[in-house]
Amino acid sequence: MPLHSNHLLGLDGMPKDDIQLILDTAVSFREVLERPIKKVPPLQGKTIANMFFENSTRTRFSFELAERRLSADVLGFQASGSSLAKGETLKDTARNIEAMKVDMVVMRHSAAGAPHYVSQVIEANVINAGDGGHEHPTQALLDIYTIREKFGRLHDLHICLVGDISNSRVARSNIFGLKTMGVKVSVCGPATMIPRELDKLGVDVYHHLDEVLPTVDVLNVLRIQLERGAGRLFPSIREYHNYYGITKQRLEKTGRAITVMHPGPINRDVEISADVADGEHSLILQQVLNGVAVRMAVLYLLATRN
Fold first, then answer.
1. What single DSSP character describes residue 176?
2. Can you give the pLDDT at residue 263?
3. Beta strand 47-52 pairing with 73-78
4. How far apart are CA 144 and CA 173, in angstroms?
5. How far apart are CA 166 and CA 158, in angstroms?
6. Is 126 in contact with 7 (CB distance < 8 Å)?
7. What would the CATH number be for the domain defined by 137-284?
8. Does the structural domain 16-136+288-303 have CATH classification 3.40.50.1370?
9. How many C-beta atoms surround the C-beta of residue 144 within 10 A?
10. What are the catalytic residues?
11. 139-153, 198-212, 235-249: which range is least confident on average?
12. Beta carbons within 8 Å of 203's beta carbon, 6+ residues apart
């Protein structure tokens, strides 16, 4: 059964069957990444344009690697050296790139909704690689995949997102995706970092980390986004770390083995201590590897949808 949409723009409203299909397809591609020859031919002859209007390392490299592992031709794009700097509109840029017979566009943009807009003015498949503070669907999918890989299931698990919820597109996509898959989701952070009425999305809201730790299975720790002004939302880095930092001592007090994740990049010894980030219960590097497999699955399913 194919995906219901020609695009991957967000997990809000995505059918459970679609998420399940992506996760199950990623299993096969995860096996490909363990082979001596890590390249397969499904997207041979397809051309994919990576349009990144924001800085990115992991997501951009992960998509590029996924595309090349599938044998696609890859076209790189950076706004700083493009005709946008000369006043060209986003619509004209996208349509000109599509006119070169590009089959798919992977797009990151600082404006929420930009990938949705582009999907309406071109016929190529569009994948949202992060749009402002809105969504980051492939990051959430790889997080969900990593959790399922670790526990062998998603049901009966309690996942808590910790930190800068207000500025986090990763948090939004995780909430939408995890809730769709039937997972119990909580968020924890200072009141200034949690949107009002977030509980209407069906999540439990905590402002004291030690209250939620006794029942949580996975902590997905979010970066403090200083570039988005998050530093104004709490008195000091030191105080934030004291109240919400994930430290080895804090986790050991629970007497439980709590799995720790982080979408990166990490501010070490701010939201998470170095010994936890590199510790035995950390899945951070596993998330990076699984990200390639999940993005291979998304690319493959969209490219072969018809």
1. H
2. 95
3. parallel
4. 10
5. 21
6. yes
7. 3.40.50.1370
8. yes
9. 26
10. 58-59, 86, 108, 136
11. 235-249
12. 175, 179, 185, 186, 187
163-221, pLDDT tens digit by residue?
999 889 999 999 999 999 999 999 999 998 999 889 899 999 999 999 999 999 999 99
DSSP 36-97: SS----TTTT-EEEEEESS--SHHHHHHHHHHHHTT-EEEEEEGGGSGGGGT--HHHHHHHH
Contacts of 221 (CB under 8 A, 6+ apart): 162, 163, 246, 260, 261, 262, 271, 272
Distances (CA, A) of 221 to 59, 104, 122: 17, 31, 36
Per the structure block, which two tokens stand in for 237? 């880095």
State pLDDT tens for residues 249-298. 999 999 999 999 999 899 899 899 999 999 999 999 999 999 999 999 99
Domain with CATH 3.40.50.1370 in the chain: 16-136+288-303, 137-284
Partners of 188 in the β-ladder: 162, 206
DSSP 222: P
d(CA 222, CA 299): 26
- CB-CB contact of 150 with 283 (8 Å): yes
Full-prediction pTM beyond 0.85? yes
125 has which bridge partners? 104
The per-residue pLDDT for range 259-270, each reduced to its tens digit, is 999 998 998 998
Residue 301 · residue 2 · CB < 8 Å: yes
Please classify residue 271 by burial: count the beta carbons closer than 10 Å to its beta carbon, then call 0-12 exposed, 13-18 middle and 19+ buried: buried
Q: Do residues 285 and 85 touch, judged by C-beta distance below 8 A?
A: no
Cα(65)–Cα(44) distance, integer angstroms: 14
Identity of residue 287: Q
Lowest mean pLDDT segment, chosen from 6-10, 75-79, 128-132, 279-283:
75-79
